[in-house]
Design brief:
This is SPT20 protein. The chain is α+β, with helices and mostly antiparallel strands. The protein is 48% helix and 10% strand. The protein contains 27 helices and 21 strands. A five-stranded mixed sheet has the order 1-3-2-4-5, sandwiched between helices. It has a four-stranded mixed sheet with strand order 19-18-20-21, with helices on both faces. Helix 11 runs antiparallel to helix 12 (299-315) and helix 18 packs antiparallel against helix 19.
């Protein structure tokens, strides 16, 4: 029927904000209209930050923001602002810094109370609507804060000013005196030791529970192995990374029927996930599994790469080439259900599986059905296989989350089958389940397209295309990069935009006032363009990457304290200008910027970029030496900075078979400290204009010839693939 309430969020593009457009709360988007109202009416601001696939955000909306009574309290005493954290990571970061500093924790939904001049003084995350035994209710908090503002306004204002000053001091990251980049061996060894101590020997990963697919840890371990491959520590680093990736792929965090990876595991075993699927995880994991394949040659890892990219191509791709942000954890169990449940789209009862897989299996023990084989292999139990302790709301009672409990060999032996035949049978089962699942109501799809996350996914496709020699993946990466240039880049200003949206009739829409790109957008897109150049050898991507690097320097560099700010200067609505200091679900932008700057210097000859990379490391030096486990991507970059990147130059016709053979050699070897370029003899081309030394490199005996250069000084020419492979080791 017709909604009873409609607020200003109805005019927004963000799927998260639109989810709240019919709340009885008089929500405003973040902007001047709300700020002016708070000042004019001398009201406090209630700021609620979340994202469209956030389970607890949905819970708080159902319990509190849809309540007419609570809505009336909010509208009477506060100016209420809703923010999509994925659209505005700058606003999210400022107030999350406050919530973490004052409560010792953080998360979403984030609930913060601000003075009319946007200074925070109280905050938390999820609040239940009413008081409970252990928690004060949202209604009570609202009324108490409203009373405080009425009775103790001056004290609140004074307190908010003190809090802001303290946050400004504690969150400042700057170079101390004449500090230089930290010693790489010490940083790398300490980071390895800290990861090794937190490693789960049985199930992989780096905590007991919850367990996140933290790609930055795996990337660090691969690099540590590459630099220490003949030592016991190097061998352990590789074992930790490969075991973690295998256990994740076998686990319930991996969607065995619909492909791709869920957000995180609620338990130690990678079994019961939080079911949302995020684009940034798919992009980074595609890259990590590609590296695992490069290093090990094990097709298992290549198959997981194909699985992830199939999911993204099918379910997270816009027809214009961009990638959507996420799929929700919650959905309706059936078409007639009135209430969504977490994981409903993905879980199974034993009864359902028996009905879908009744066929007898030829050659197996008598009476064995497909269902018997499938249920044994994927740990299905009659009463469900989810630990009630991991299901506090009983949403998964009687259900099964598929997890590969056995190897193919063990399951095959159990039923007297050949492993090869078993693989085909399981594949047939998964396809049947996929067809059955397609009849269920799908989870909500967040069709917002973000420059940063699209950058991470382009890197995933480009690196997979190079490592697996799959040209189709490189083409998909190029299509997405073209999408970015068309829809998330302003050619007049030369700047990136943060977001765009799927509109009506599958068009691509932009906000009335487009959101300008943040540091993370530049960093991840530049990284993607370097990866795409190395996979495609199209020099236009390189040219655009270097242009964006210049723009990033202009907008975000801190000339006094060094490193990059996360946001531009000059936004009066941001009470803090911060630098992220922790690699998490995504690497912090300054971590990736170090490697980007080193690559940019190698492709352009601009040595001031090398200098900037060193200045970032100097600004983070203390943190890198004490707790590098919080910055594994930057710790990795520390080694790259001191090692000096190798410029691998192939002189030859890119279409020639001898050139292709050399390129395949370079791409099939995991060598973290290299950049790849092809000198094709076109002296008017972009690379030759950037790097005059290329003109002096020639083919030997008319064959494709490789040179491995360091600081633009080159080795003797090499025409043998075997010799080249030997030179690629760090």
């Amino acid at each position: 029927g017709v909604p009873r309430h409609t607020n200003r969020l109805i005019n927004e593009k963000s799927p998260y904000l639109l989810q709240h457009a019919h709340n009885p709360v008089d929500w405003y988007p973040w902007g001047q209209e709300a700020f002016d109202k708070a000042k004019t009416e001398n009201k406090l601001i209630f700021l609620s930050v979340g994202y469209s696939t956030c389970h607890w955000c949905h819970v708080m909306e159902e319990e509190s923001f849809k309540s007419k009574e609570i809505g009336e309290i909010m509208n009477k005493h506060f100016v209420c602002i809703k923010v999509d954290r994925e659209e505005r990571p700058d606003v999210d970061k400022v107030y999350m810094t406050f919530v973490q500093a004052t409560s010792g924790g953080g998360g979403w939904p984030m609930s913060v109370w601000l003075t009319p001049d946007l200074k925070p003084f109280a905050g938390g995350t999820y609040f239940p609507p009413e008081d409970g035994v252990h928690r004060v209710g949202f209604r009570t908090v609202l009324l108490r804060i409203a009373e405080q503002w009425k009775e103790n306004k001056d004290a609140l204002l004074e307190s908010s000013q003190r809090i802001l000053e303290a946050l400004r001091q504690t969150s400042e990251i700057r170079v101390q005196g004449q500090e230089s980049p930290p010693p790489p061996k010490e940083v790398m060894d300490t980071c390895f030791q800290q990861l090794s101590r937190s490693y789960d020997e049985d199930y992989g990963g780096f905590s007991k529970s919850p367990k996140f697919p933290t790609a930055v840890n795996l990337n660090f371990l691969f690099t540590y192995w590459a630099l220490h491959r003949t030592t016991p520590e190097g061998a352990r680093a590789l074992q930790m990374a490969l075991h973690t990736l295998k256990m994740m792929a076998h686990g319930g965090i991996h969607d065995h029927v619909g492909q791709g990876f869920h957000r995180y595991s609620t338990d130690q075993h990678w079994h019961v996930p939080h079911f949302e699927k995020m684009l940034y995880d798919q992009g980074q994991l595609a890259a990590m599994y590609s590296r695992a394949f490069q290093i090990s040659g094990d097709e298992f890892f290549a198959d997981v790469v194909r699985d992830i990219l199939l999911y993204v191509s099918r379910d997270l791709s816009d027809q214009t080439g961009g990638f959507y942000s996420a799929e929700d954890a919650d959905s309706y169990p059936t078409t007639t259900s009135r209430e969504k449940r977490e994981g409903a789209f993905c879980v199974w009862t034993a009864e359902e599986l028996r009905a879908l897989l009744p066929d007898p299996v030829e050659g197996a023990k008598e009476g064995t059905t497909l269902g018997d084989v499938f249920m044994h292999h994927y740990g299905v139990e009659e009463a469900g296989n989810v630990d009630p302790m991991k299901d506090p709301h009983q949403e998964l009672k009687g259900k099964n989350v598929l997890i590969a409990r056995c190897s193919l060999e063990l399951t095959a032996a159990q039923f007297g089958l050949e492993p090869g035949r078993l693989g085909a049978l399981l594949q047939e089962c998964r396809q049947r389940l996929s067809s059955a699942r397609a009849l269920r109501p799908r989870p909500h799809l967040d069709t917002k397209m973000l420059a940063a996350w699209n950058g991470l996914m382009i890197s995933g496709f480009a690196q997979a295309g190079a490592a697996l020699a799959e040209q189709g993946y490189v083409s998909r990466a190029a299509q997405a990069a073209s999408f970015l240039r068309t829809h998330l880049f302003d050619p007049d200003s030369g700047r990136l935009l943060r977001s765009c949206y799927r509109g009506k009739d599958n068009s691509v829409e932009q906000s009335a006032v487009p959101i300008q790109g943040f540091l993370e957008d530049y960093v991840f897109v530049i990284q993607a363009l370097f990866d795409l150049y190395e996979a495609s050898l199209e020099q236009g991507w390189l040219e655009w990457a270097l242009h964006l690097q210049h723009m990033q320097d202009k907008l975000f560099w801190d000339p006094k304290g060094f490193a990059y700010f996360s946001t531009e200067a000059g936004d009066p609505s941001l009470v803090l200008r911060l630098k992220d200091d922790q690699d998490g679900a995504e690497p912090t932008p300054n971590s990736v910027a170090v490697t980007n700057l080193l690559r940019a210097a190698c492709y352009s000859g601009h040595m001031d970029w090398m200098e900037k990379a060193g200045k970032i490391l100097a600004a983070f030096s203390e943190r890198l030496q004490k707790i590098p486990i919080t910055l594994p991507e930057m710790a990795r970059a520390t080694a790259m900075f001191h090692q000096t990147l190798k410029q691998v130059v192939i002189c030859g016709d890119p279409q020639g078979e001898d050139t292709k053979e050399m390129l395949h050699c370079v791409r099939s070897v995991f060598s973290p400290n290299k950049v790849l370029m092809v000198a094709d003899g076109d002296s008017a081309g972009f690379l030759y204009r950037q790097l005059p030394f290329l003109a002096s490199l020639e083919r030997k005996d008319g064959k494709a010839t490789a040179y491995v250069c360091s600081n633009f000084t080159c080795s003797l020419p090499v025409t043998s693939v075997q010799e080249l492979r030997g030179m690629l080791s760090p």
